Amino acid sequence: MTSLSPQNEELLRKLVATGRFQSEDAALGEAIRLLVEQSEDTAASGVLPPMEWVKEFDRITASRTAGNPHMDDSRESIYGDRGL
Q1: How is residue 84 annotated by DSSP?
Q2: Mind listing the pLDDT tens digit for each residue in 29-49?
Q3: Residue 30, domain member (yes or no)
Q4: Cα–Cα dist 64/61, whole Å
Q5: Cα–Cα distance for residue pair 52/58, rounded to 1 Å
Q6: Residue 29 domain boundaries
Q7: Is residue 12 situated within a structural domain?
Q8: Interacting residues of 16 by C-beta distance below 8 A, sequence separation 6+
Q9: Is residue 68 part of a domain?
Q10: Is this structure's pTM higher than 0.70?
Q11: How high is the pLDDT of residue 19?
Q12: Which of 21, 7, 75 is nearest to 84 (CA)?
């Protein structure tokens, strides 16, 4: 196992002291299980993390070309004689 920072060691001690976990190992096991579950849920749902979503959105928008920039979208071209 890797070494933990003093802050994380203190958090583990506090979690065990609450009585919810029998040991620091049990608390770490639960944390890892929750992270794996969350990771699988995200992958299964097809939902991207926010920064990945932004990258994908930017990639898609960069690949699109603008419509016809010379199209006449004036009121007269849209409604013709109907608006008079």
Answers
A1: -
A2: 999 999 888 877 666 677 788
A3: yes
A4: 5
A5: 10
A6: 1-63
A7: yes
A8: 22, 23, 24, 26, 27
A9: no
A10: no
A11: 93
A12: 75
